[in-house]
Hints:
Layout: E1 2-7, E2 10-12, E3 18-26, E4 33-39, E5 46-52, E6 58-60, E7 68-73, E8 78-83, E9 92-98, E10 104-105, E11 109-113
Amino acid sequence: xxxxxxxxxxxxxxxxxxxxxxxxxxxxxxxxxxxxxxxxxxxxxxxxxxxxxxxxxxxxxxxxxxxxxxxxxxxxxxxxxxxxxxxxxxxxxxxxxxxxxxxxxxxxxxxxxxx
Length: 115
């Protein structure tokens, strides 16, 4: 089993920045991919960014490309999502996820972009 705990969400003004963190524990040696999804009210959950553990290659959704960056600190077993130039449409619950077919999920952290 793998446990994922997100932190770093909150209220930010348009144009501002936030950094989300996801602390992983458990059988993390078996994890090949980690990522961030988000779900806005009334919308489907969407993949925002993904990172392949062994190659460190990343995949960023077009909607956030150039503004969001995914990274990982292997020593801390922590995944990050740096979000810059935030927009009201980025408002959502952000979830950390991991494993094949996104088997493992965190509880989510709310990000609200509003003036």
